[in-house]
Amino acid sequence: MPEAATTFEVRAVSDGVRVIDIEGDITAQSDDVLMDAYGRASGEGVKAIVLNFSALDYMNSGGIGLLVTLLVRAQRQHQMVLAHGLSDHYRQIFELTRLDEAVGIHENEADALGTLS
Q1: Rounded Cα–Cα distance for residues 59 and 45 (Å)
Q2: What is the Cα 71 distance to its own chain's centre?
Q3: pLDDT tens figures, 30-58
Q4: CB-CB contact of 63 with 28 (8 Å)
Q5: What pTM, to 2 d.p., does this model score?
């Protein structure tokens, strides 16, 4: 199996909020690394996960499917999922797939974090 061309770095920005910085591509091959990042981000007491797409290079339908899986897992944990840094193209894809109804989309990290206070 090819290696995923993506890195997912997890940052704690407060006791209940984690940011996953996405760099590279999100495809079906990203499954293990994305779910590993979600596992690292989703500790006890985490109420919100913020996905930072500002360094995203490419995402296909397999990647969208992985985001849906992540969203379902977060909802089971009663965690809010927010996103920022989406290009116009990917913002349209979120609208077409109706992901924008389940994921709070923001212009930047400060705006996303501001909705949590």
Answers
A1: 30
A2: 8
A3: 999 999 999 999 989 999 999 999 999 99
A4: yes
A5: 0.93
